[in-house]
Amino acid sequence: MTTSPIKIIAGYAQIDQDESALLHRHRAQYQTRLDAIQQLKITPTLLTIDPLSTDWHSDQQPNHFRSGCAPIMALKQAQLLIEQGHEAVIISGDDPVKSGYGREERHQLMSVYADDYSIAQLYNDLANEFIKENHSNEQQFLALADALFTNHSRSHKIAEQEGRAHFPAPGSKWFSHVTPLFRGVDCANPLVDFSGRLLLCSEALAQKINCHDDNIVNVTGIGLGLLDIDEVKQLSLIARYEHLTQAYQTACKQANLDLTPLITDDKVLMEIYTCYPVVPLAFLISSGIVTSLDEVPAFLDKHLLTITGGMNLARAPWNNPALNGLIEMYQQLISSSHQYGLVHGNGGIGYRQGIAILEANHR
């Protein structure tokens, strides 16, 4: 267990050309906190989420992170650095996925597996393995995918009402199937520009800069489940999601929380990684929140899996969805009555899993 949880003290995310009053307020708070730290002659350590332009197969540079699990892995590194004596850390992600690449270049960079094996088809094959693993069938899976999208739509509507949504609901063409098990609305839409920052520091530094409890969120638990495998050849291993169970249990143990009953009592805000229905379904099963897929519809009727509408409706900036989720969760925890938040990251086709548990400091 971490004896003194690291603190999130500011964060903002800009999506496309958003210049809303909400973004300006978040960015101003971030700059105020950063200025206060720098006035103490402290330079935060920078952790970078690699953009799409970074070759997926290239060597990873120090303090750089790649994949959809990258932001949770960076958060773990921030935790280690602050425990080792670094006083402040910035997790940074910038990726102009929409405006910074031509269509052909973008398509080429996103083809991180063999050209004849698309990510969508890989996920379709993974879902088939998951169906077998859970003694289910294609009809049940399709029904659950529809229930998941309905759940995401509910949280997206709340985000719209609160001025946090950036995109309208998708048009009818997105409801067509792109693979036998997925419709367009079931997949992430990465065609957005993104810039995000999350500022973390030690408890001592938060006190030095007079950061009030109302603006602090504690990172109380981080769990990682990382497989070192050839994803394309090991879909059956990934589909068991034992490493996701490990990530969830590690985060709960570090936070000293039995999170599952708190989730079922609606005491935890969640931002689950929702690109392709198999991922949130795997989270629900692997965490023990449900014991079988038969229980999923009743759970989805009562509880929201995201605070944004998920990657399907809030959209996904390549390696940055979980960073956007961490930033959004920070903002929600300091502005609502909720005490706990959970953010999930899923890397590649699922070989990397990360769970972060956040807790409001003022409750």
TrEMBL record:
It comes from the Bacteria. One of its GO terms (molecular function) is acyltransferase activity. This is Acetyl-CoA C-acetyltransferase.
